[in-house]
């Protein structure tokens, strides 16, 4: 799994009010350059204070887990015991663990009621990024692909290993909420696993001894190391391995940059420390599922010690998955999703996107938009001097609708929901709307709709308490005020960050930022960015 660290390079070049903000610990799957990304901000404790040794917990994970009551966590829990074990598949020599882990976590969340097998091939080949399948991927790519309804599609529609992915496929389900659990307490991770069947996470995997750890292995090298039956040093003595293939137990005692994605399907507090090749200082292990060849684990299952310092630094939890007909349309400007953060050196910032209502009956335009983005791959991002909110470049355009009107019936739509990223924990939001938007002066006429708070970082869809009618062809402004404690740039933006985001364009899009909701700046014209703010209609 190659790792591509576009954020590290970009942060060095950006002014302080516009950063490539990515949470610490996110895996950039693949590659030999696997140094940890420094935290974009001090996120603090993203969840409740319950330790895993404690048998009760008293806080929800966030919107997706708000209804769970405090209760006792069992010493052992495994998704497979409840019919929630996803299909075990093999990634072969491709750098695709990130996609396999994502679709496996989605499958587990739907099981046992819905038995769908999703395509990792489509996620790796039909996302909005200009990246080859052997270059790896990361959580932000997954979030952009899923939140933008680019997928998932089923394995039957797009099987893995044939070297191709058909055009014209549509999402089998819509993923409307993805929570990031950053440095979460084990009790919170366990609660998320039990509620959703799995969480996606990363770790460092290599079977070699610590003294052989001078470089970070590629995924293929890591697979070879971990699948081997044993090795001996130059003197013929057996070396100490991180993976015990007899007990299917893995423990790396050293903190390393993660290089592999897996799903955690459960835990066992009583799993003996003496089952590992090197003995950790405590019993207990996470029950994980891998995507390597048959020689590793038992039907893909292996155990990772709680004491492993590299497991579960960041977990991805898919907390809201709905039928593909949940909304009629999605309006958005950010095919590549969260690539950076923007703001005014303040934990609060206003953001807005301007869309044109298409009316009922408009066809799904995803493929046309994606093809259009590909045709514009060589286009240059807009550039402007940094004077206030910062300077940046751009990611790809909205998927199903844009600021231009679309032909359709004369019947209007209803604005039913708004989607955006929370770049850190405890983010609060206020949603407003402007009808018949003409220019920036109309922001003063905004209509307040509702507000709320989000416990964790991630992508969220907020359903409006009262859907708002939109006339066919009406230009409307979706406005959100975001406040993220400790974050100087609380608005997620898309921009052309590197060679992997060359599909990004600002053309035909209209986004705004404001520090206080009074004076507004067009982000495409001044900064070359698109605000990550979606609108859903019915």
Description:
With 538 residues, the protein is α+β, with helices and mostly antiparallel strands. Helices cover 13% and strands 26% of the residues. It contains 8 helices and 25 strands.
Task: Identify the notable features of this structure and list them briefly.
6-stranded antiparallel sheet, 25 strands, 538 residues, alpha+beta, disordered N terminus, 13-stranded mixed sheet, 13% helix
Whole-number average pLDDT? 78
Distance from N terminus to C terminus (CA atoms, Å) equals 40 Å
Low-confidence stretches: 1-17, 21-64, 66-70, 208-240, 360-409
Overall helicity = 10-25%
Assembly state here?
A: single chain
Itemize the secondary structure elements and their pairings.
Layout: H1 6-13, E1 18-19, E2 28-29, E3 76-78, H2 97-110, H3 120-125, E4 137-138, H4 139-147, E5 173-182, H5 186-196, E6 199-203, H6 219-227, E7 243-244, E8 249-250, E9 260-268, E10 285-289, E11 301-305, E12 314-323, E13 329-331, E14 340-342, E15 348-356, H7 366-375, E16 413-422, E17 427-434, E18 447-454, E19 457-470, E20 475-483, E21 491-494, E22 511-514, E23 521-522, H8 523-526, E24 530-531, E25 533-537
Parallel strand pairs: 8-11
Antiparallel strand pairs: 1-14, 2-4, 3-9, 5-12, 5-19, 6-9, 6-12, 7-8, 9-10, 10-11, 13-25, 14-21, 15-20, 15-22, 16-19, 16-25, 17-18, 17-20, 21-24, 22-23
Quickly describe the structure:
The chain has helices at 6-13, 97-110, 120-125, 139-147, 186-196, 219-227, 366-375, 523-526; strands spanning 18-19, 28-29, 76-78, 137-138, 173-182, 199-203, 243-244, 249-250, 260-268, 285-289, 301-305, 314-323, 329-331, 340-342, 348-356, 413-422, 427-434, 447-454, 457-470, 475-483, 491-494, 511-514, 521-522, 530-531, 533-537. With 538 residues, it is of the alpha+beta class.
């Amino acid at each position: 799994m190659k790792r591509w660290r576009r954020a590290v390079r970009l942060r060095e070049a950006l002014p302080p009010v516009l950063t490539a903000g990515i949470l610490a610990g996110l895996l950039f799957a693949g590659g030999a350059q696997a140094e940890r990304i420094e935290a974009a901000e001090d996120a603090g404790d993203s969840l409740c204070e319950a330790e895993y040794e404690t048998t009760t917990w008293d806080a929800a994970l966030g919107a997706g887990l708000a209804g769970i009551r405090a209760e006792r966590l069992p010493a052992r829990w495994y998704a497979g015991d409840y019919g929630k074990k996803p299909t075990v598949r093999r990634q072969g020599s491709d750098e695709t663990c990130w996609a396999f882990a994502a679709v496996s976590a989605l499958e587990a969340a739907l099981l046992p009621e819905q038995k769908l097998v999703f395509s990792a091939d489509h996620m790796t080949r039909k996302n909005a990024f200009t990246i080859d399948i052997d270059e790896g991927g990361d959580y932000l790519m997954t979030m952009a692909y899923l939140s933008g309804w680019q997928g998932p599609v089923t394995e039957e529609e797009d099987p893995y290993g044939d070297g191709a992915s058909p055009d014209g496929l549509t999402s089998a389900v819509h993923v409307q909420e993805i929570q990031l659990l950053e440095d979460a307490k084990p009790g919170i991770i366990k609660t998320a696993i039990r509620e959703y069947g799995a969480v996606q996470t990363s770790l460092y995997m290599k079977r070699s001894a610590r003294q052989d750890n001078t470089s970070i292995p590629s995924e293929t090298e890591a697979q070879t190391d971990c699948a081997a039956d044993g090795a001996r040093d130059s003197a013929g003595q057996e070396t100490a391995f991180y993976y015990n293939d007899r007990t299917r137990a893995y423990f790396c005692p050293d903190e390393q940059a993660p290089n592999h994605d897996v799903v955690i399907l459960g835990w066992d507090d009583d799993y003996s420390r003496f089952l590992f090749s090197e003995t950790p200082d405590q019993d207990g292990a996470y029950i994980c599922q891998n995507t390597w060849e048959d020689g590793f684990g038992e039907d893909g299952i292996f155990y990772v010690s709680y004491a492993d310092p590299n497991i579960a630094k960041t977990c991805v939890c898919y907390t809201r998955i709905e039928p593909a007909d949940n909304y009629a349309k999605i309006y958005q400007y950010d095919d590549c999703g969260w690539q950076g953060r923007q703001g005014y050196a303040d934990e609060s910032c206003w953001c807005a996107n301007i869309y044109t209502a298409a009316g009922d009956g408009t066809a799904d335009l995803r493929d046309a938009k994606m093809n259009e983005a590909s045709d514009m791959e060589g286009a240059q991002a807009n550039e402007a001097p940094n004077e206030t909110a910062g300077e940046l470049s751009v990611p790809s355009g909205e998927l199903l609708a844009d600021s231009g009107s679309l032909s359709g019936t004369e019947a209007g739509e209803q604005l039913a929901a708004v989607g955006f990223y929370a770049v850190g924990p405890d983010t609060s939001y206020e949603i407003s709307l402007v009808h018949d938007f003409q220019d920036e002066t109309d922001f003063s006429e905004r209509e307040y709709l509702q507000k709320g708070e989000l416990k964790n970082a991630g992508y969220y869809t907020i359903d409006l308490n009262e859907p708002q009618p939109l006339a066919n062809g009406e230009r409307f402004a979706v406005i959100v005020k975001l406040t993220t404690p400790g974050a100087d740039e609380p608005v997620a933006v898309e921009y052309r960050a590197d060679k992997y985001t060359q599909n990004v364009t600002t053309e035909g899009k209209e986004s705004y930022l404001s520090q206080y909701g009074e004076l507004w700046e067009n982000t495409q014209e001044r900064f070359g960015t698109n605000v990550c703010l979606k609108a859903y209609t019915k």
